[in-house]
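We modelled the chain as a single entity of 207 amino acids. Its sequence is:
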Amino acid sequence: IATNKLAATMGNLTSTLTFLKAGKVDMKLLGPIVPFVFIFSMLGAWTVHLLDPAILKPLVIIMLLLVFIYTVIKKDWGQIEKKKELTWKRKIVFLCSLLAIGFYDGFFGPGTGSFIIFVFLMIGFDFLQASGNAKLLNFTSNLAALVMFFILGEVLFIYGIIMGISMICGAYVGTKFALKQGTTVVRILFIVTTLILLAKNSYDYFF
């Protein structure tokens, strides 16, 4: 997990910078949230040092399945930006959801990107904007976890950097492709990626 965080941080930084340049990251909304996600991810990384992350696998499978089913059923969901008014109740649910995902990313990680995108879709962002926002928060949570794992001495830098260089290339090409193709293609990729994650995690758990 620790070494993967190094690679994921490098890849997510590349995607975040590309989305930022394209104006697909809502810094006004995310600015106050980023520090809290950072802290909760560090707490998650510290907790995984004490507990076995395998305890979350059944819950992750269920959550990925729900995200997949909901996205497939709601065919027009995320195609057009329809931002909802953030009442205090929605703000609390929104913030708590992101903090919980930040903690989860530090603790375990699989499916984090899908979960964050899902939260942004729920408040009315389209897939492209949701992806851009998700990358910033995913980068934040990965970086925070990486810092904690570095302090704990768990990071294998040679492997992490090799994987990270590969992820930088993939992230750059993938982000450019998403920006060029638009929300319809991003929705399809989101569904396919979520399905692959669901299959991978189910296989690991049951077999």
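As a brief sanity check on the tokenised model: The mean pLDDT is 92. The longest helix spans residues 127-151.
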